[in-house]
Every structure is written in C-alpha cells, then in structure tokens.
Amino acid sequence: MLELRAVTAGYDRRTPVLRDVDLTVADGEAVGLLGPSGCGKSTLARVAALLHRPDAGEVRLAGTPVPGFRHRAPRALRTTVGVVFQQPRQAADPRLTLRDLIAEPLRATGRAAEVADRLAELAPTVGLGGDLLTRGPHEVSDGQLQRACVARALVLRPRLLICDEMTAMLDASTTAALVGVVEDYRAATGAALLAVGHDRVLLDRWCDRVTHLASGSSARA
Amino acid sequence: MSAPLLTVADLSVRFRMSGGRTVAAVRDVSFTLAAGQCLALVGESGCGKSVLASALLGLLPGNAQVRGAVHTDGRELLAADEDVLAREVRGRRIGLIPQSPAGHLTPVRTVRSQLAETVRELTGVRGSGLPDAVAAAAARAAFPSDHLDRYPHELSGGLAQRAATALALVGDAPLLIADEPTTGLDRELVDRTVDELRRHADDGRGLLVITHDLSAAARIADRVAVMYAGRVVELADAKGFFGSPGPRHPYAAGLLAALPEREFTPIPGMPPELDALPEGCAFAPRCGRASAACARRPELTDGLACHHALDPAHA
C-alpha cells in the first residue's frame, strides 16, 4: 500500500530530520511507528501523506510512484490517504461548522452531492449527535473536535489512514473510542493504517506490528 | 495531623453566556490537600478541571460566578481582591505550573532574563546576588545552566516544562498547582517530569496535579479525585484506586478500563453539555448500572457519589 525507499527529508537540506528511511505498509496492514519527540516521526507521516516533499528517496502509494507532493500530488493519489493530526484545533478551520469541516474533502473534490449521505453515515459512527454538527470548533471540546477530524479523514473512503499522534491530547475513553472507529472502518474496508505515536502500550495494542524510528538516524522498517 | 494546606469547600463556578445560557463548569467541589501530599484531579477534557485551577488563583474571566470557600494559610481566596491575590498569593502562596509551558514563557526573552525578573520581584534579591540566585532557581527545577541564555523556542518540550517549573518555584510557595503538565510529552519525558514534580511534594509542598493522563496520575499521586461534568464523583487513595481494590464509581472504572493496557473499551456516549446537565446523576445516561434511583443526584459521601457503586471486592 505504502512504500518509502531511502527517504531523506527535513526542513533544511544540510540537516535532514530523516535520513535514508525505509518503511513499508502492506495492503490492509496496521503499522505503528514509535519514536521519541523530535525524532522525525511526524515528518515521516507528512511525507507518507504526500504533504511534505522529501529531499531524496522514493515514495510509492498503491503501487504508483508518487510524482509530486502537496499541491503537485495527483488528486487520485492524494485522496487515497486520510490523515488525522495530533492537535485538532490546529487542524480545523475555525470558521467552519463541524458539518462543513467533515464535508470539506467531498466539496474540494467535486463530490458535493454525496455530502448529505456521507454525513448521515459518519456522524453516528464517530459519535457526533445532537446539534454538535452545527457548531464551530470553539463551541466543542478537543475530544469532540478530534471526532470530527477522524470523520473528515474517512469521508473520501481512503485506502490508507495516517494517524499522527491522534490521541495524544485525549483522555483514555475518547482514545479507545476513536481507535475503535478507525478499526471498524478498517475491518469494513480493508484499509491500511500507519499510526505514529510515542505510546508503546497503545501502539502495541492497536497495530499488527510496531517499528522504531531512532532519533536522528535511519530506520529500516 | 496538621491543618491542611488547602481547603476547598463547596466550590462552584458558573459562566454566564450570551443568550442567557449558563454553563456550570464546577459544582460543589470539596477537598483538602496537606503538605507533602499530591492530589491528582483526573477526568475527561471539558469536565471542569482547569476551571477549578483558575478559580483557586482568581484567574477566571469576568463572566464567571464563584460560590464556596477556598482557604489556604488562614486566608480565604475567593473573596480576596485582585491586589491581594497579585501581591501575596500568586507565586508566593500558590505556584502555577501551566499547561503548555512553551506558551507561558515570554517568547522574546531568554530563560535567564525571565528567571531574574521573577527572582527580583518575589525574593527582593538584587544586584550582585542576582546571578547566583538565578542559577539556584534554575537548579531547583533541574534546568541545565548552559541553557539559561536560550529563548523559549530553542527549548525542547521537556526543558520548557522545567523552565516554567523553575519560575513557579521561585517564590517558595507551599502549594503548587500543575495544570496538565505532561500533555504532548512522550512517555519517557512524562515519567521524568512527573518524578520531578513528585520531588517537590516530597520536599513538603502540597501538589495539586490536574491531568487526563491516568498513568501519570498513578505515578505521582497519593490521592486521586475523579471529576465528571463539574463534580467530584470519587475521591480515593491512589494506591487502592489504581491497584487493588480498584475504583468504586462506574465512571472511574470505565475510564480505567479504557486504557490500552486494560480492556481498551470506551465508555459509551459522551459527557453531557455543561449548560444542559440532567437533574440527577450526570453519568446515568452512559452508565450500565443506572436505575430509577439515579434521577436523584447522589451526594459525595465517604469519597463516592453513586447510588450503585461497584463492590471492588467482587468487581
């Protein structure tokens, strides 16, 4: 599903955060990526989600070599991946209601006609009932906003989910609930998962296998 | 036993919102904290934990209505005016270790300059004695002296945490409040931060830790208070709560069961909105043990507010 070969990436070519990293996620597989803060695991997640262009190396998604990143990534590849970030407040447009937040990827890809149906499916799945969908991010808790961000990541039915510290801000019950949402989706669709985090106990429980990214060095995974 | 360092009695905080809505963030919370002791206040996000900390320090916004009493050192804090709080309480009686320390530090000044200002203001040390006093203040929070001339953005999460802790310790306040001190830190750093905080309790301070991280709470606390929808629903000895016999309130049991090292199953549903709380037990709609009795609100008695407490011996 996802293949990273000899990827070097960072924010300054002289001091890359990741050097020569290999990572493979098979179809339907759940891989946990573990590492201390500052080791580059979020950068790796961004490369895998086509949100950051690596300095060197190759990324293959669903068997296709990725020809460009960010806005240069072809839509068909971009929509193959759903991403959930650590901090929902920084990942949500404060002007949108939760309904529009979840529907945004559909509208951006010209599929606005599906909005009503997908929302009716997804809102109960992630546990957003009542009037929560009509509220803005500042009117809901972190946990509720992260539920909306998970729904947004699932709305295009991605074949690969990337969760970068999805639960680091959340309490134990919301963590278990959102991991459950992701796992139910994967069970129903056979989607693959790359879960990035620092909590070994959580990733061991969640993923098929867990791999380490050591600080500032290369990884073979 | 000596008089408690902090006594909170029937503390309630309500916010008046636009459109006549009222949000009951904290309701009838009572607890005491003794010197050398650590109390962890745990609960889901939005349960009122941080509002409680702000109330103790008089840092609530203008639309807050506060009831109850908070005593420390023979002084009542809720009725105290801003001048007294600023001059005599904050930093001197109560040190606050804030949530997201990187955001709490002044971004345009070095750690040394911020520590020096606080040392000057709180201890009156000036002139030639100042550099030594600053070095000593940094050392108390294990902040490395070779990093004193760095700006906050040049610090890792762990070091920013220690810089904020160093600032909180300068006034030698007998009571420390740490608001989510471990959010966003990785596990190793959480353990180290928590152990460092624990040392300050072992030195004879009272430590109130507000956290949603149950593993951190288990590591640091002597007692644990579980908050749900603004109320304390269980107040227990930490060892018994996290170990054996275990929690007694179904909500507390559900929170612990949600941990990945335990059952990893969530509590069904979500916490109620604080502007539309049910008449009776606020947890009843999510509770497997709820019955007609739960329409009547359970009062906190003997450390527990529940009509159908778990019998830990058989749970």
Poorly predicted regions of chain B are none
The CATH homology group name of the largest domain in chain B: P-loop containing nucleotide triphosphate hydrolases
Report strand % of chain A: 15-25%
Order of SSEs of chain A: EEEHEEHEHHHEHEHE
Average the pLDDT over all residues of chain B and give the rounded result: 90
Strand order of the largest sheet of chain A: 6-7-8-3-9
Count the strands of chain A? Answer: 9
Q: Which strands sit side by side, in order, in the main sheet of chain B?
A: 6-7-8-3-9-10
**Shape summary of chain A:** globular
Structural class of chain B: alpha/beta
The gyration radius over C-alpha positions of chain B equals 20 Å
Largest sheet of chain A: 5 strands, parallel
Coarse shape of chain B:
globular
The N- to C-terminal Cα distance of chain A equals 14 Å
Structural class of chain A: alpha/beta
Classify the beta-strand content of chain B into a percent band: 15-25%
The CATH class name of the largest domain in chain B reads: Alpha Beta
CATH superfamily heading of chain A: P-loop containing nucleotide triphosphate hydrolases
Organism (chain A): Streptomyces chumphonensis
Family (chain A): Belongs to the ABC transporter superfamily.
GO molecular function, one term (chain A): ATP hydrolysis activity
Keywords (chain A): ATP-binding, Nucleotide-binding, Transport
Summarize the structure.
Chain A: Residues 2-221 form the ABC transporter domain. The complex is a heterodimer of chains A (221) and B (315). Chain A has 221 residues and is α/β, with parallel strands linked by helices.
